[in-house]
C-alpha cells in the first residue's frame, strides 16, 4: 500500500501542493485535475524524482526515500514525455531497457515476448519505432514500465495525443494491468478513467479536493444537474456546465439548487462533476 502523509511541495516561494494526505490501494487510481494543478509534481514525488518539502510518502509503512533500489524495483513509470530511439524496434528497445535494469538476458527475452503480446505489438516486434503511431509508442512505453512486473505502475498523462480508437484500446490495456497492482494514471480527460478507475484523486487550490470512487464523486451532485433548452436565460445560482444535443435540439447542462421550471433532472456523470468542481474562472 502506498500512502502520502501531509505532503507539501514548494518551488521557492510558490506552493504547488499543500498538505496532501491519501492512500492508494490495488486497482486504477485516476489523478484527475486541470493542467497546472500539480499532477506531475505529485507523480514526480511518488517516483522519487522530486522530494517533498514537508511530509513523507510510505510504501507498506516505509519511507520510499529510504527504500532506494527496493522501491525502484517495485515501481514502473511511464513519464509524460517518453524518450525512445526511433531506429530501434520494440524488441531491441525493450532489451536495452531491460539491460539498464540489470534484468538477465534470458529472463528479459521471455518477458519481452509476453509483454509485446499483452500490449498487442507482437506483430510489430521487428518494425522500427519511427514507423509507430502515438498509440503504439505509448504501448511500447507501457511495456518498458512493466518490464520488472511492478507492484506500482505510474503513468503520467499516457493518453495525450492519442486518437479516440487508441484511447479506448489503451484504457482496456490499463484496466487489464490493474488486477494485482496499483496503477496511478494522471489525466485531465475524464473519459480516460471514468469507467476503469476505482478511485479518483482530485486536486484543487493546490490541496486535495477528494479521493473517492467515481460514483461517490458523482453522488455529490445528485439532484443538482439539469438539462434546459438552449434559449433558457440562466439566473444567479444556475451555472452552465456544458452544451449538448438532445432529440435534434441543443440543450444546456446546468448545475443548480434552484433550476428553471423547464429543467429536466439528469444523472450527473463524472464530466459534470469535473466541470462543477472546476467551474470557477480558469479552472476548467
Ligand atoms: N520546477 C518548477 N519551478 C517552479 N514552479 C513549478 C515547477 N514545476 C512546476 N511548477 C508549477 O507548479 C504548478 C503545478 O505544476 P505541475 O506540472 O505539477 O502541474 P500538472 O497538473 O501536472 O499540469 P500539466 O498537466 O500542465 O503538466 C504549476 O503552477 C507549475 O507552473
UniProtKB/TrEMBL annotation:
Pfam families: ABC_tran. It comes from Dysosmobacter acutus. It comes from the Bacteria. The lineage of its organism: Bacteria, Bacillati, Bacillota, Clostridia, Eubacteriales. This is ABC transporter ATP-binding protein. InterPro entries: AAA+_ATPase, ABC_transporter-like_ATP-bd, ABC_transporter-like_CS. Belongs to the ABC transporter superfamily. Keywords: ATP-binding, Nucleotide-binding, Transport. Transmembrane segments: none annotated. Residues 2-230 form the ABC transporter domain. One of its GO terms (molecular function) is ATP binding. Coiled coil: none annotated.
Amino acid at each position: 500500500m502506498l500512502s502520502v502523509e501531509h505532503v507539501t511541495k514548494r518551488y521557492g516561494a510558490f506552493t504547488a501542493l499543500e498538505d496532501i494526505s491519501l492512500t492508494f490501494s490495488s486497482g486504477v487510481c485516476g489523478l484527475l485535475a486541470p493542467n497546472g494543478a500539480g499532477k506531475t509534481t505529485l507523480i514526480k514525488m511518488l517516483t522519487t524524482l522530486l522530494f517533498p518539502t514537508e511530509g513523507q510518502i510510505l510504501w507498506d509503512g516505509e519511507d520510499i526515500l529510504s527504500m532506494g533500489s527496493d522501491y525502484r524495483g517495485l515501481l514502473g513509470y511511464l513519464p509524460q514525455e517518453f524518450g525512445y530511439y526511433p531506429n530501434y524496434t520494440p524488441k531491441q528497445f525493450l532489451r536495452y531497457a531491460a539491460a539498464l535494469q540489470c534484468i538477465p538476458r534470458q529472463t528479459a527475452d521471455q518477458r519481452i515476448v509476453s509483454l509485446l503480446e499483452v500490449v498487442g505489438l507482437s506483430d510489430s516486434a521487428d518494425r522500427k519505432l519511427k514507423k509507430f503511431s502515438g498509440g503504439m509508442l505509448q504501448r511500447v512505453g507501457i511495456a518498458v514500465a512493466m518490464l520488472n512486473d511492478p507492484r506500482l505502475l505510474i503513468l503520467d498523462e499516457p493518453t495525450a495525443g492519442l486518437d479516440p480508437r487508441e484511447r479506448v484500446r489503451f484504457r482496456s490495456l490499463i484496466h487489464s494491468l490493474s488486477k494485482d497492482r496499483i496503477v496511478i494514471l494522471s489525466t485531465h480527460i475524464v473519459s480516460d478513467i471514468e469507467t476503469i478507475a476505482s478511485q479518483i484523486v482530485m486536486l484543487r487550490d493546490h490541496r486535495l479536493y477528494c479521493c473517492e470512487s467515481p460514483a461517490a464523486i458523482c453522488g455529490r451532485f445528485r439532484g443538482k444537474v439539469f438539462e434546459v433548452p438552449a434559449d433558457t436565460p440562466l439566473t444567479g445560482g444556475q451555472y452552465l456546465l456544458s452544451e449538448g444535443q438532445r432529440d435534434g435540439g441543443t440543450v444546456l447542462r446546468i448545475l443548480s439548487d434552484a433550476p428553471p421550471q423547464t429543467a429536466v433532472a439528469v444523472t450527473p456523470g463524472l464530466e459534470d462533476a469535473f466541470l462543477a468542481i472546476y467551474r470557477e474562472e480558469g479552472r476548467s
